[in-house]
Amino acid sequence: MDIYRIAIVGAGPAGYFAAQSLFKAQSTDRTFLIDMIERLPTPWGLVRSGVAPDHQKIKTVSKVFENIAKQDNFRLFANTELGKDISLKDLSEVYDAVILATGASGGKKLGIKGEELQNSFSAAEFVSWYNAHPDFTNLKVNLETETAIIIGSGNVAIDVARMLLIDYEKLEITDIAQHALSIFKGSKIREVIICGRRAPENAAFTSVELRNLIKLENIEISVSHNQLKESNLRISKVKDLDREVENNLHAMSMVLNQSSKSFKRKLEIKFLVTPLEIKGVNHVEEVIFAINKVNDGKVEITNEFFSLKAGLVISAIGYEPIEYQGIEIKNGRIENIAGHIKDNIYVVGWAKRGSVGVIGTNKSDATDVVDLLIKALKVPKKVTGIEGVLQSNHKIINQIGWEKINASEVISGELSGKPRIKESDWNRLINLGTT
After folding, report:
1. Cβ contacts of 153 within 8 Å, gap of 6 or more
2. 312: which strand partners?
3. 56-66: per-residue pLDDT in tens?
């Protein structure tokens, strides 16, 4: 029997689904020894540090990950960073194949003046902060302002808006980071404005997310009636219209039919606007926008401008993958052909296709790449794997170590009526996972 050693870099959904596909592809002729390498002390990727705390059902996919991790041929090497503790070149030499499942964890920049002001964040930073990502525990977030502006019109923008507007009591029973919970408790935000560059029919959020917003109590949601009317007119001329576009516009029209009772907080969705500058003395105070128009199906900036006063700006315009020596990044993804980068190196998930798709999209994506990988396999290498290139004193958190962290968090949560209380301090996580 041929025994192949495969390294998967990244312990998020894409990485686990790649491991699952490899295990399913085992036969009497071949088997796989899988080493999953993760920079953080904890696995699960965006399921842990990206999915909103009030969306606990989505996080149940972690049970699938844990079942994969129980396979005899699976090993976890958390707290091990590619490019620092080990190089891609080394991995390529000591494994039969390497799969990069490193995601896209960096937030895309707006590229406008004032973006560096205090209380201006990317959604990647803000979401990681409230989800207890150890890199972002010291982010200085100030919610003592009445108005927040979110740039972008995708599901992440909707998530962030909901988090800013939801009643504190509903956050208290989630697994939100403790340091973030105390800031949300003192929040003075009463209005959130989502600003999208394109028209309503081009909105990237799903109708499900928008309908969930409408269900929230004490929140008034507004969308321009004229913009919706114009969008419906434009799509009426389109053949083979995407059903999701229709569903989105229908969900937005439901917003117009909300009852006119009094609300504690307000969410406004503005389309066809482009941010030009964030103004303020040291911190965010105002955002300057240009008004856009649709001309022959294309969005164009006009010479009309307006400004909005706000004390918080969050840009949710997409994510960028991390750069590593030996790979090229282009258009928000690692350059690849159908998942193959070069030699015996492959890529899956957001790192492969850009920050599009939901968690489940990674499953079929991983299967396709694994099929390609298997076809290229030759005689197995006679190598030891990661142990041959890692320094002997490096602190590794293995699967047993992660289970200790997991159990500690869940037990702490049970005592407080929460799903878990996440540990967000890097050193404490290492101590929990290595003792």
Report:
1. 194, 195, 196, 197, 198, 202, 203, 204, 205, 269, 271
2. 148
3. 999 999 999 99
Mean pLDDT value across residues 297-317: 96
Concatenated DSSP letters for 177-195? -HHHHHHHHT----EEEEE
Q: Domains (ranges, CATH) in the chain?
A: 2-105+321-434 (3.40.50.720), 111-318 (3.50.50.60)
Q: Look at residues 69, 94, 79 and name the one whose alpha carbon lies nearest to residue 41.
A: 79
What is the Cα–Cα distance from 336 to 214, expressed in whole angstroms?
Answer: 40
306: which 2 tokens? Answer: 């307006």
Q: Whole-angstrom Cα distance, residue 366 to residue 371?
A: 9
**Mind listing the pLDDT tens digit for each residue in 370-395?**
999 999 999 999 888 898 888 878 99
**Strand, helix or coil for residue 63:** helix
What is the bridge-based pairing of β-strands 30-38 and 329-330? Answer: unpaired
What's the rounded Cα separation, in Å, for the pair 257 and 271? 19
How far is residue 46's CA from residue 49's CA, in Å, rounded to a whole number?
A: 5
User: How far is CA 403 from its chain centroid?
Assistant: 23
Strands (E), 248-285: 265-270, 273-279
Q: What is the pLDDT of residues 253-300, one digit of tens each?
A: 887 666 556 678 999 999 999 999 999 999 999 999 999 999 988 999
Question: Residue 76: its pLDDT value, please?
Answer: 98
Predicted pLDDT at 259: 56
